[in-house]
Each structure stands twice: as C-alpha cells, then as structure tokens.
Amino acid sequence: MIQTELQNFFQQHPVRDVECIFPDVSGYPRGKLMPARSFAKGDELRIAQAIPMQAITGDYSYHPIFPDADPDIRLVPDYSTLKMIPWSSVPRAFAIHDCVELDGSYCQFAPRSILKNVLARYSALGLTPVVAPEIEFYLIAPNTNPELPFVAPTAKNGRAENGQSAFSLNMLNELAPFWDEFNSAIDALGIRGDTWIHEVGLSQYEINLVHGDPLALADQAFLFKYAAKEIAIKHGMNAVFMAKPIAGQPGSSMHLHQSVVDSSGKNIFCDEDGSNSARFHHFIGGLQAYLPDLMLIFAPSVNSFRRFIPGSQAPINLQWGMDNRTAGLRIPLSGAVARRVENRIAGADANPYLAIAASLAAGLAGIEEKLQPSDAVAGSAYDCSHDLAPTFMAAHEQMSNSVSAKKLLGERFITAFTAVKQLEYKSYLYEIGAWERRFLAPQT
Q: Does pTM top 0.90 for this prediction?
C-alpha cells in the first residue's frame, strides 16, 4: 500500500528531490537531499550517528558516550509526513525521518526517538496524552552584524513598529504579504493553527496549535519554525525563536497544554462529577517533582534564562493555580472534557520533541507513583520561592547529577545532551559581549 501511495504522490507532484529531514538536539532540521526516484523506490539512506547531537555552534562533543568510530544510523521516513514544500522555488517534497540504529532500534540520541519512547510508556498503560503548544516568536529586520541588536522590520506603511501593539490587528495587517504566504504554507503542511495574535513584544507574535497527538504536534511545531524562517527570508525579514531576543522586551515561550485520555477517549483528569481526579493531582505532582531536574530541556541556552523575570508572566517556580498566569503550572478554566495542565516553563527556543517528552514523562511518573502536589497557589506565585534553576550552569549541574532525569529520558540521552550543552557553554565563554565592553573597559 505504501508503494502505491508513493507512486500516486509522485505522479501527482512531479518533483526531482525530496528533503529527508529530522530534528537535531536543538530542533533544527538536518538531513539529506535525495532524488525523488530513489525515495519512491525506498532506497536506504544513512547518516552519521553524531549528527542528531550536533551543537548549535556546528561542533561535536568528544565525550566518551559518543563512539569514536562515529557509526552510521539509518534515516527511516515517516511517510505520513511526506508533503510538498510550499516555499521552494522549484517543486520539491520533504518527509520527516526517524533515526534508527542498524540493529533496528531507535537512535538514543535522536529527539524524535525520545518522544516516541515516552509515548510508548503511556500506550502500555492504555493511556493517550493530548497536547497543544502555543509558540511565540519575533519578526525582525535582517541582522547581518550579530554585534548589533535586533530591530523591528519595516511594515507596508513604510515605518517600523514602535511598540505598544499587543493584540493589534492593524500590525498583523501591516505585514500581510508575509502572513498570507505563511498561512497558506502551514495549511499546506497540515499545521492546524487555532488563533493568531500580536503579542506584547515589539513585532512579537503567537500561534496556538489545535490539540492532538503529541508526536504529530511536535512535528507541526518543528515544521512551523522551519516554514517561518524560510518564508520570513523571502519577505526580507528573519523569524527568531530565541527565548529573549531583544533587551527590554518580553521573552518568547512555548506553553504546553496537556491532558490524558483513556482507551475510551475519556479525559482521566476529571471524575464523573466533573471534579479534578486523583490522577490529575498525581500528574501535577509529577511535574513538580521531576521538572526541576529537566529544566535544561525547557531552557537550553544561556539566553533562555533571561526570560525568567518575576512579574513578566514567565514563571520562576512550579506552583500551580487555577487560571493563574503567574504560576509555572496553570489550570485553564474549562469543562470536564477539556481539563488540562498548562506547562509555562518552556521557551520558544526549546526543542518541541524534547519539551513535550520531558513534560509528559514527568506527569506519567507522578501518576505511576501517586505523587501529591502542593496546595494550589492563591495570588501571585512570584511571592513564592524561586525554585527553578536560575542560570544555565545551575540547570546543567542539576541535570548532570540527576538520577530521575536519566530514568525518565534515558541515561545515554541525558549524558549526551549535557555533554553537548557543556560544549555550547564553553563556546559562549570565549565571546566578549557588549556589556563587558561598555562597563568593564572604562573601569579596568
């Protein structure tokens, strides 16, 4: 059946090449370009095992966890993701691939594998998680000199936005050529957007994705970023998913709404009378117990920690509360069928596969261990202690020494992930920044 469907696809879409892509540790698309005829025949495709763990600097770690031989893995297509690329200048298709060892097991360094392993644990219990990410990002003018700060792009009125445009439809309309093409592209890619808004920041925007299967939503978030970057470039802009790209402006998050249904499709977070169930509380208990050790997943760079400022609606702890945006875990007001937990920790720079996997793994551990959460916070959660790691190195040390992180996401993955993050941090330390030049040079 797959072979017939492939033949029909390529007869309908006469393309020359297929992008065989997969998300690396940072959520960046990597892979190979393959002739369509070879893809249609199912020719085997291989790549070095280290590629899924390539650092954002382009470097590779030499930690002993990575084999010196740098062996091959296979790229195995998920045929359900095969689609035409809307922004390509010539007809071209792509498909998301899994990274598979030559013995047939999932590569333990690949983010898509990590999420699949977590989902398999839910399936073994007859449970299915449901997620809905909210993704924020900035549109900026081209930035050819990284020494200079980002600025807003010029709109069709000939001027750049100067701020104070939160929830403005006018500012959405000012960049209409970009949005028209971008919306057409995500429709073609099967990305189901719920609502768009102009966020609080200068030329900052947010999309809410329609809830659904976690792997499908991770794929959609991955492709959303890919599409945004490519189409922004076509319109003379850059799409930026840094957690804190502009000083003095709000950070960009990736809030994750999560619920769990049983084999009959019933939301297990509610009892028959519509009240919160024991497993709802256990899920929150698991998030509170285990997410602190997984903070580096949700805040993967030194820039990520600039977002967590008290009073900014970016959380500093894992308090939970009803319809409370000061808490790291918010429970939106809803009917029983939509009862869910909103994890507000992740930044827009987090890898969606890893962020979803980490959050779901922590919640499931809470259910299995029947963990109890703290009391729901009343008032501002900023009045509570700052319980999350406040810096990159604090989060790195906490994850590196964590037994629970390795238990939830795999020892080899956590070891590899922290090794790569240590490599990136060393690269950061080699740079001399504007703050140092501005304040230290006159004084020393």
A: yes
